[in-house]
């Protein structure tokens, strides 16, 4: 009896290690989210209202959401395509193994490089007076502005987001590519299938849930990026994070409670994208085990 009680206490003590994470998540994730949800249904005087939610159906806010969805979707799509190609090259593409570790290390750093430093790096490189912009203009006579390139625009924001979207795709999809068994490819080859047929009929169908789920995660990652968009474009681009920032700060007749409603809409969209990622990843892991 004594040994059983001691074992039970020992098992219970294992949960103590989760306390720092639980406290951190509660203080900086759960409580702020609840505060936003409550604030979205409050008036400035503290009363209950649905007006903040109804005010989301205005042309400027609908346009901000649409531009944010477009930027997030396109950056996620291109990030998946390019990142998948890079990950496939270092896993099943036959590139030397010495390239894999530096690429994964760089991807781990670059996937977390965002905000003001990332915006400054792109402005200094391919901005209106950036290093590459001036180099192309002075040495080759190529004026990027004449070709319609503008970093402080929707295409420019998409290109900037790709800097952290592509590495994140590499980090997530590499284990899935490693999970493809060599026996499957050998069996397909024995049965007379070409490399294209193997990928079209075996490899890609197995990886499809992982690819679609990762794209959903990249979409949520871009949709919630605030600091990079504000530092890069400022108020010139009408997207949801910038509009939310202006409402919370009270700029130009801003309303904090309308800002809470905007944030609630962003939480719903990113929450759905993350839920889709978790569901699809669970399905893909059944095949890769």
Summarize the structure in words.
It is found in: Cell membrane. Belongs to the binding-protein-dependent transport system permease family. CysTW subfamily. It is a multi-pass membrane protein. Keywords: Cell membrane, Membrane, Transmembrane, Transmembrane helix, Transport. One of its GO terms (cellular component) is plasma membrane. The protein is mostly helical. It has a domain at about 75-240 and about 265-289: Orthogonal Bundle (MetI-like fold). The chain is about 75% helix and about 0% strand. It has helices at about 1-15, 20-40, 50-55, 60-90, 95-110, 115-125, 130-140, 155-180, 180-190, 195-225, 225-235, 240-250, 255-289. Helix 6 runs parallel beside helix 11. The protein is globular. It starts with a helix and ends with a helix. The mean pLDDT is about 85.
Summarize the structure.
This protein has 289 residues and is mainly alpha-helical.
The coarse silhouette is globular
- For the residues shown, what is the average pLDDT? 85
CATH topology of the domain at 74-239 and 266-288: MetI-like fold
Question: Biggest β-sheet: count, sense, barrel?
Answer: none
- The share of residues in extended strands comes to under 5%
What Rg do the Cα atoms give? 24 Å
Q: Could you tell me the number of beta strands?
A: 0
**Total helical elements:** 13
How does the helix and strand content classify structurally? Answer: mainly alpha
What is the end-to-end distance? 40 Å
Oligomerization status of the protein chains? single chain
- The level 1 CATH classification of the domain at 74-239 and 266-288 is Mainly Alpha
CATH architecture grouping of the domain at 74-239 and 266-288: Orthogonal Bundle
Give, in order, the helices and strands: HHHHHHHHHHHHH
Tell me roughly what share of residues is in helical segments: over 70%
What is the CATH superfamily label of the domain at 74-239 and 266-288? MetI-like
Poorly predicted residue ranges: none
């Amino acid at each position: 009896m004594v040994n059983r009680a001691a074992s039970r206490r020992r098992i219970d003590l294992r949960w103590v290690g989760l306390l720092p994470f639980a406290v951190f998540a509660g203080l900086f994730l759960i409580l702020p989210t609840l505060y936003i949800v409550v604030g979205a249904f409050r008036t400035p005087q503290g009363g209950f209202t649905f007006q903040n939610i109804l005010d989301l159906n205005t042309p400027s806010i609908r346009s901000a959401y649409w531009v944010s969805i477009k930027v997030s979707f396109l950056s996620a799509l291109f990030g998946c395509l390019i990142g998948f190609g890079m990950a496939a090259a270092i896993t099943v593409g036959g590139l030397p193994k010495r390239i894999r570790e530096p690429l994964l290390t760089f991807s781990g750093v670059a996937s977390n490089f965002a905000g003001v430093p990332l915006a400054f790096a792109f402005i200094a490189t391919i901005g209106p007076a950036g290093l590459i912009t001036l180099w192309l203009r002075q040495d080759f006579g190529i004026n990027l502005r004449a070709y319609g390139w503008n970093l402080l625009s929707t295409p420019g924001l998409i290109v900037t987001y790709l800097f952290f979207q592509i590495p994140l795709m590499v980090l997530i999809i590499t284990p899935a590519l490693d999970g493809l068994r060599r026996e499957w490819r050998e069996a397909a080859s024995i049965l007379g299938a070409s490399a294209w047929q193997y990928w079209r009929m075996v490899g890609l169908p197995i990886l499809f849930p992982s690819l679609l789920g990762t794209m959903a995660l990249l979409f949520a990652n871009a949709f919630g990026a605030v600091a990079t968009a504000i530092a890069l474009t400022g108020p010139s681009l009408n997207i949801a994070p910038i509009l939310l920032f202006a409402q919370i700060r009270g700029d130009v007749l801003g309303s904090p409670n309308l800002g809470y409603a905007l944030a609630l809409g962003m939480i719903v969209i990113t929450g759905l994208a993350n839920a889709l990622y978790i569901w699809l990843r669970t399905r893909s892991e059944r095949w890769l085990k």
